[in-house]
Amino acid sequence: MKKMKKLLALLLSVALIIGFTACGNGGPAGAVDEPQIGIIQLMEHPALDAAREGFMAALESEGIAAEYDYQNAQGDATTLSTIAQRFVNNDVDLILAIATGSAQAVAAETQEIPIVGTAITDYEVARLVDSNESPGGNVTGASDMNPIEAQIALIQEFMPEIGTLGIVFSSNEPNSVIQAEIAQAVAESLGMTVVIGTVTNVNDVQQVTTSVANQVDAIYIPTDNTYANAMSLVAQISMETGTPIFGAEPNMVMGGGVATLGIDYFDLGFQSGLMAAQILRGETEPATMPIQWAETYTYTVNSYMVEALGITVPERLLEFIRFSD
Question: Fewest CB atoms within 10 Å of the CB: 37, 198, 216, 242?
């Protein structure tokens, strides 16, 4: 009888040890040690690259040693779907979706694997969540919605006599469409006449942008992946027509724009990474984790473009001048 009691006590001790081990070094139940993370990125350009780097830096700062499978779709919808299927087949622990199209592709393939987005303007409008306040599914993340009203006001500060404003964007990027609509309403409320130009891919950029540039005093471009990938061409058009172009984010400005008040995409990616860390530790889940918004914005002024176009920088913004490489 005593031997039986000792055996039962031994078995109980072993069970307890296994239980604690499963929790991962004393962490909460459901936490993942050395998680496998799939990263799906719509295309390469400085803003999206910075968001990816910020995400990985956040997990490192949280002490999470993840194994990453980074895949870039180069702007191709079919490739996005293939990458999404790859992650599902490999049963990764979490997916980072960079840009709206990436998130839509992975959300169409899995309702189980947690998806954290970044560089996505409005998750609710993109039909990724039930609502931004209460996602309700397996998708959450950080939004790159810009302070559009302040950005349009900034254009007017640089060009007090502006009468016509062009807005160019990709019509098949939901994030761009949302921002363009807001920008148009704001510009018209300030008394500007707005000329809209839309593209479907990078091949349209030269013709559409040149046409709009020849009709307006300045151009505004929202955060748009197609245009972000073509800023060297946009800069050339700006120089040829003498039309100042104001991008919605710092990397676009430094690629050929004049100025902006925008998001730091490394910081946005870092914010998404902190959200992912909570999910991986089992502290929360996407369904109950509200979409987060950028907390700070920074001014950026491109020294080369303001000099080349003969634009006077408002005195309060002189400290934000950045010099091109």
Answer: 242
Tokens of 268: 């946005």
Start-end of H helices in 139-203: 148-158, 174-189
- Give the model's pLDDT for residue 142: 98
Note the pLDDT of residue 31. 66
Distance (Å, rounded) from C-alpha 184 to C-alpha 204?
A: 21
Angle of CA points 213, 219, 222, to nearest 5°? 135
Q: What pTM did the predictor assign?
A: 0.85
Question: What is the C-alpha end-to-end distance of the chain, expressed in Å?
Answer: 82
Per-state percent for the chain, helix, strand, coil, to nearest 5: 45, 20, 35
DSSP 8-state code for residue 80: H
The predicted structure's pLDDT at residue 59: 98
* pLDDT given at position 7: 41
Q: Evaluate whether 60 touches 54 at the Cβ level (below 8 Å).
A: no
Angular region, 34: left φ>0, alpha ψ -120 to 50, beta rest? left
Q: Is 13 exposed, middle or buried (0-12, 13-18, 19+ CB in 10 A)?
A: exposed
| Residues of the chain below pLDDT 50 | 1-29
Rounded distance between C-alpha atoms, residue 226 and residue 143, angstroms: 18
